[in-house]
Amino acid sequence: MDLGITGKKALVTGGDSGIGWHTARMLLDEGATVVISDQDQESLDAAATELRAPKGRLHAFAADITSLDSLSALHEQVQQAVGDIDILVQSAGVTGAQGLFHEITDEGWTKTIDIDLLGPVRLVRQFLPSLRKGGWGRLVFLASEDAVQPYDDELPYCAAKAGILALAKGLSRSYAREGLLVNCVSPAFIHTPMTDAMMQKRSKELGVPTKQAIASFLDEERPYMELKRRGEPEEVAAVVAFLCSGLASFVNGSNYRVDSGSVATI
């Protein structure tokens, strides 16, 4: 399928693995020039090698979304490499502080919000002028099922992702008439390094193999995931790529759930 983005320029944060990496691959396959970013340059370089993009169509620059100076440097690198971007996919984030509410300190809350909510705010502020220039733009945030169905053992993450939905909706009202469309994708329990770490921890705590830990997590913690498996990152990336495309020209301010039915309400 032709997504109508040949020649468009995209920045994908969290691009060294998981959903970000697969999104970058799909955008490259559709003819876009892509910049991937994450904190570690070595892992980015390895990810870029695996993507095997044509020369000049893929760039990899490390940046920290909690640092204004780092994001300013990233903006300068992107400008020098590709110029103004047309597409921004904000996929970088962490699970953050976990535990019941009374167990999480101010530090845990602050660090999680700083990465998962203020990080995207800083990133968009840095690249918004570029996205507004061409009369055609796409901004996609990775939110989470947790934004609308919070879990009691990761409330800082839930609150941050709920904030992302509100941020995206507000931005979608501000800039759509300029051609910049803003949307969210909310995955649930996807096969990524983040959930690998969660399941390895659960496996140790329960004293069972990882496969059994995953099965028990689905039964006990995510009973509405009707497919009874983790999603694959490319299943989420396909929806992200659509929202980045010319085909999504009437989609704005939306939140697409890619969750196997995990969210229990309509």
**CATH architecture label name:** 3-Layer(aba) Sandwich
Q: Tell me the distance between the termini.
A: 29 Å
Number of domains: 1
Spell out the helices and strands N to C.
Answer: EHEHEHEHEHEHHHE
User: For this structure, what is the CATH homologous superfamily?
Assistant: NAD(P)-binding Rossmann-like Domain
Percent in helix: 40-55%
**Model regions low in confidence, pLDDT < 50 over at least 5 residues:** none
Biggest sheet, spatial arrangement of strands:
3-2-1-4-5-6-7
As for the CATH topology, it is Rossmann fold
What is the radius of gyration? 18 Å
Portion in strands: 5-15%
DSSP strand tally: 7
Biggest sheet character: 7 strands, parallel
Category from helices, strands and their pairing: alpha/beta
What form results from the Cα inertia axes? globular
Protein described:
With 266 residues, the protein is of the alpha/beta class. It has a single domain, classed as NAD(P)-binding Rossmann-like Domain (Rossmann fold), CATH 3.40.50.720. It has eight helices and seven strands. It has helices spanning 18-29, 41-51, 68-81, 106-133, 155-175, 193-206, 210-221, 233-243; strands at residues 9-13, 33-38, 58-62, 87-90, 137-142, 180-187, 255-258. It has a seven-stranded parallel β-sheet with strand order 3-2-1-4-5-6-7, sandwiched between helices. Helix 3 packs parallel to helix 4, helix 4 (106-133) packs parallel to helix 5 (155-175) and helix 6 (193-206) crosses helix 7 (210-221). The radius of gyration is 18 Å and the shape is globular. The two termini are 29 Å apart. The mean pLDDT is 96.
